[in-house]
Amino acid sequence: MSGLPKQHLRPGVTLVFVRHGETDWNVEARLQGQQDIPLNDNGRTQARRNGAVLARDVHAVDGFDFVASPLGRAHETMLILRGAMGLDPVVFRTDPALLEITFGIWEGFTLAEIDADGTAEGRRRQADKWGYVPPGGESYAMLADRVARWLGTIDRDTVAVSHGAVGRVVQGLLLGVGPEDVPNLPIPQDRLFVYRDGIHEWR
User: Nearest Cα to 146, choosing from 182, 184, 173?
Assistant: First the structure.
């Protein structure tokens, strides 16, 4: 399978993508989706770490747009991140385009629990993580349409705080990764993905 159609930001525009800090459901490997699960203490530490990294380049983020998913774990991550930068924590906006992929009726369960229910749904997802739509949920392909539209609206340097699946799709679209590989891309919670003019790095 070939890579996704490569998406380009406007020349000279920087995107800093931050995944929200850890939650207890992350630790338990539960599908969070659009459930509003709060950060745990480690997640708050990760958010402060990411803010400190950005603070070292505070001159470079002067005038950036700061935007977060409306879910509480992303909202709190942004509050902590901006506070660690010495900025007013509450001066940012939210955008529903950055909401996590929804897993429908699977939210709150682990994949092991889903596999144990005797249906073949977990196996179907494993066979096609990109195209599979959980009952009442959203596929990675559907999420990619939403994220691609959001990327197309970015018209200035941006710091975005969002979620794991969103971050994988952002990488896939900007780097031209194959759809079959996108759901398995790494998206750590204690690193920043920085992209500008076709070049990316993790900080």
Answer: 173
Contact (CB, 8 A) for 115 and 82? no
* The one catalytic residue among 22, 75, 76, 100: 100
What are the pLDDT tens digits along the chain (203 aa)?
567 888 989 999 999 999 999 999 999 999 999 999 999 999 999 999 999 999 998 667 888 999 999 999 999 999 999 999 999 999 999 999 999 999 999 999 998 888 886 677 778 888 899 999 999 999 999 999 999 999 999 999 999 999 999 999 999 999 999 999 999 999 999 999 999 999 999 99
Q: Is 180 a catalytic residue?
A: no
Q: How many domains does the chain have?
A: 1
Is 8 labeled as catalytic in the residue annotation?
no
In a 3-state reduction of DSSP, which class is residue 161? Answer: strand
Considering the entire predicted model, what is its pTM? 0.95
Query: What residue numbers bound the domain in which 172 lies?
Result: 14-197
Q: How far apart are CA 77 and CA 147, in angstroms?
A: 20
